[in-house]
Amino acid sequence: MIHPTAIIEEGVELGENVKVWAFAHIRTGSKIGDNCVIGEGAHIDTGVQIGNNVKIQNHALIYHGCIIGNDVFIGPNVVTTNDYYPSVFGDWKNNGRFRSTYFCKGCSIGANSTIICGVRIGVDALVGAGSVVTRDIPDGFLAYGNPARPIKEK
Amino acid sequence: MIHPTAIIEEGVELGENVKVWAFAHIRTGSKIGDNCVIGEGAHIDTGVQIGNNVKIQNHALIYHGCIIGNDVFIGPNVVTTNDYYPSVFGDWKNNGRFRSTYFCKGCSIGANSTIICGVRIGVDALVGAGSVVTRDIPDGFLAYGNPARPIKEK
Amino acid sequence: MIHPTAIIEEGVELGENVKVWAFAHIRTGSKIGDNCVIGEGAHIDTGVQIGNNVKIQNHALIYHGCIIGNDVFIGPNVVTTNDYYPSVFGDWKNNGRFRSTYFCKGCSIGANSTIICGVRIGVDALVGAGSVVTRDIPDGFLAYGNPARPIKEK
Predict the structure, then answer these.
(1) Residue C41's domain spans which residues?
(2) Does ipTM top 0.90?
(3) H-assigned helices in A13-129
């Protein structure tokens, strides 16, 4: 199911049984596994890697440098980043500011969270809605806040 | 006024004099009262109930389980939720995690706020922009922050 | 480069070499300088003034009353405001609640930040991702948090 208003560029590797909702945009060179859902207005940037059984909710912005494992839930309006010191100047891919971000198997990111680039969200971790993630989140932990801190094991 | 790019599914109950802006999506089974404005890119999920004279600003995401009274202002990019422990697994409507959220008459939700499900935003309450609402907000109070705390009576 | 799904109203003053991505909307009476990029799903409201060499990233919402200088970076999902006490009632442009917001030359606003109206983001300032800006940010300072506080000179 690909909504007719969705934009899927050439050079995207789409798995089986992927749903893409209205106004979503999937850019070239990204790879999306089986049984994934890409929500309304979501943006999947070039080179993003997404595993199987992943839900990317409405308006989530997944930028170049994001690596997403299997069984991950990305909530609505979640925003990722890839430039630690964003600026209109310079070539962000080649100036030492670019960092990748890892969403490990089974983790969930609550709605409207902001993920600062360069972190690893651990296996089965849960980031509470509205958080700003600035550091790694350990496997299996619940974390939330601005900045997000690990609160307890789930 | 319904913008030609807006998507309004069958089975929506639209009141009189409703404006729907570009790239908005209103899902089946939702009910929208008279004199409402649904902003650009906003998403109104299945079963959402919206009263009269309500403004839903651009990109706001109003999910299943939200009940919105009359005269409510929902700011741009406000995100609601309905699953207290979001996960890619399970049937979120029937696993005990689903909670409704109530926006009482005359309340206003500032831009980019995140509303954790299960709360009641009181009559004429004001939630400051960028807040994360995790608990009920009393009638007539100004609240803000992450997490949002009642600050003073308006 | 104007994407065919973008909406550019009549009465927009567009500079040279402006790129406008999918599902963006630029409203009448706004002015956009040379070499700007307007991201996917971004909204540029009536009367907004944008200088040269500005990047407005995906889903950013730039409302009436925003004045943006040259060389400014506005991150994805950044939300501006223009009504200090938002409400569904009254004429927000003429009730004393409207305030302008200034983004000075060379400043950068991190992803998903919320800008409360009436502030001045200083020259070359950097607002960290996920911040809520409630006060002026001095020239050349890094600021972040909710509320955003100046942390150090860059």
Answers:
(1) 1-154
(2) yes
(3) none
